[in-house]
Amino acid sequence: MVELAVSMAVVLILTAIAIPTLMYSIRTYQLNSAAARVSDMLKFTRFEAVRRNKQINFLMQASVDGWIVGTDSDNNGSVDATEKQQLISGFAALLPSGVAPSPTAISAALGGATLSTKSGSNGSVTFDARGAIRVGGVVSTSVFVFYVGSAADPQFGYRAVALLPAGGTQIWTAPDGGTWKRIG
Q: Is 173 exposed, middle or buried (0-12, 13-18, 19+ CB in 10 A)?
């Protein structure tokens, strides 16, 4: 009985030590996965615009379960069931500006570029036939940023997907209240 009690105590202590590390790893994976899915949808939409040689929109729409991001291939203003889309929901969600840390490090790394937050509200981004971002018929000079994280549980940090005017994407990470660093 004593050996069993000691063995159980050791197992309980090891479990108590491992659970916080495991939870941190799971939350980090969820943040990285959500940011990668947003980035992948942006890349896919850009590819579709170039492949079809026409303007195509990337849309973000709030849903009951979170956010739907997708390619509006027929340019009807909504992501239809037959169009490629991703659901961003659960722990990691699209956040409005002001929730994540200040993006000054991202702007500085991009040569002082003007950043425009696109996440946190319904919206769209238009890719032209060359894959560049169009705003009001002209190529954008702003970098669009999509913030991913948990407003209720910021201890796990944030991710930012930066969409450059030429259509390329970058993924950035920052701890709660920390400085942004590029990871992809």
A: buried
CA distance 122 to 140: 19
pLDDT for 108-152, tens place per residue?
A: 999 999 999 998 899 999 999 999 999 988 999 999 999 999 988
Whether the CB-CB separation of 59 and 72 falls below 8 Å is answered with yes
Domains of the chain: 2-182 (3.55.40.10)
Residue type for position 23: M
Distances (CA, A) of 123 to 25, 60, 68, 120: 31, 5, 11, 9
> Is the C-alpha dihedral spanning 64, 148, 60, 51 positive or negative?
negative
pTM score: 0.89
Q: How far is CA 10 from CA 2, 14, 124, 157, in A?
A: 12, 6, 54, 32
